[in-house]
Write a structure and sequence with these properties.
Blueprint lengths: L5 H23 L19 H14 L5 E4 L7 H10 L3 E4 L12 E2 L5 H16 L4 E7 L3 H16 L3 E8 L7 H9 L4 E5 L2 H13 L5 E4 L16 E4 L10 H13 L7 H16 L9 H9 L26 E8 L2 E3 L7 E2 L4
Parallel strand pairs: 1-2, 2-3, 4-5, 4-6, 6-7, 7-8
Antiparallel strand pairs: 8-9, 9-10, 9-11
Length: 355
């Protein structure tokens, strides 16, 4: 479920692909608890009314046990959440770009969500340039998370000891960011956080490079090939799941082996890794499904999770019946270095509670 078409859909295309690959792999192993897994996909087109109608279709027509991967970046609203609460159908994993993810007992994010995600981004900024460093940001105008970040990024940056010296908010359709780069450079920005889609991020970095301005960029979504872009060296992706380049644990080895088998030409980046963790979260929840499973059985598996990391793929997840999820604030830095994405801390996540 989510925004699949258009330029915003490009942000989450890899997440959907990862879930579909997970389904192929798990079915080749005999399914989940002996049950073959089927996927139904609905595109909300960024429209909240289509999002709710799509979830109704999935639940009432298709009879899904769960919504596995909700990437309704522009469209997830309370109407959809209240509907799944009424029906008792969990939403398991997704973009986590909304405070609704930790405000409902039917929402089960696979990683830091909403303003807890925003907090982790400011922790990453402080970890990169140190306390007292000069911080700036360029934010999108589209979507609730952009407005939330406009409110919380400056506050959270200050709480992490950063100087906020520049900030602006622009549409993701803006073709050029030269003026913003010059303004950030003149303000002395050392870390420039970009809250926008991958294409816009690339335009900002290119615009800044043309001005000879090369701060440490903070990125929220990337593509595999972006590591070789001019001016991106040193940029940090604030990944709220395991670094997609890591392959030194059983869980990360499985990820890379499955991707190599089923999608050898897929460019792997953050969207793919977060989609994979979504599938693995459902797999864990559904491990003990009975012969005729229901959504209630999936919920039982979710509520049994206490401090679950899925083998180190994410921060410690705890879900409790009848309560919103316990928020987490973990992130793993992934850095562009020498034309490649690297994991400077390996599988060691940074989990700093929100102050």
């Amino acid at each position: 479920m989510g925004t699949i078409s258009g330029f915003v859909g490009e942000m989450f295309k890899g997440s959907l692909t990862a879930v579909q690959i997970w389904v192929r792999a798990v079915n080749d192993r005999g399914g989940v608890a002996g049950h073959p897994v089927e996927v139904r996909v609905v595109d909300d087109g960024g429209d909240p009314s289509r999002h709710k109608a799509g979830i109704q279709q999935l639940v009432e027509k298709d009879g899904v046990l769960a919504i596995v991967g909700d990437n309704g970046f522009l469209a997830l609203r309370e109407d959809s959440v209240r509907y799944v609460e009424q029906k008792g159908v969990p939403i398991v994993g997704g973009d986590a770009l909304n405070d609704l993810w930790f405000n409902s007992p039917m929402m089960f994010p696979q990683m830091a969500a909403g303003n807890y995600k925003l907090w982790s981004q400011m922790v990453a900024a402080a970890d990169t340039i140190g306390k007292g460093g000069k911080f700036g940001y360029i934010l999108c105008t589209e979507g609730p998370i952009c407005q939330d970040a406009l409110k919380w990024w400056p506050e959270y940056a200050k709480r992490n000891g950063l100087q906020v010296v520049y900030g602006s908010q622009m549409s993701m359709t803006q073709p050029n960011f030269t003026a913003e780069c010059i303004a950030a450079r003149n303000a002395g920005v050392q870390f420039l956080m970009l809250g926008m889609d991958t294409n816009s991020e690339r335009r900002v970095i290119a615009s800044c490079a043309q001005q000879g301005f090369n701060p440490a960029f903070g990125l929220v979504q990337v593509r595999a090939e972006m590591a070789a872009d001019k001016g991106i060296d040193g940029a940090v992706v604030v990944s709220n799941v395991f670094p997609w380049v890591q392959a030194d644990t059983a869980a990360t080895k499985e990820f890379h082996e499955v991707m190599a088998k089923y999608a050898p030409n897929l460019g792997i980046a953050y969207d793919v890794s977060q989609g994979w963790v979504t599938g693995k979260l459902f797999e864990k929840a559904a491990a003990n499904l009975p012969d005729n499973p229901t959504s209630a059985d999936v919920l039982k598996g979710l509520w049994a999770m206490k401090g679950e990391t899925l083998g180190g793929l994410t921060g410690p997840l705890t879900f409790t019946q009848g309560q919103p999820t316990t928020p987490i604030t973990c992130y793993w830095p992934v850095r562009a270095q020498g034309g490649k994405w690297t994991a400077p801390l390996g599988g060691q996540g940074v989990c700093k509670p929100r102050a």
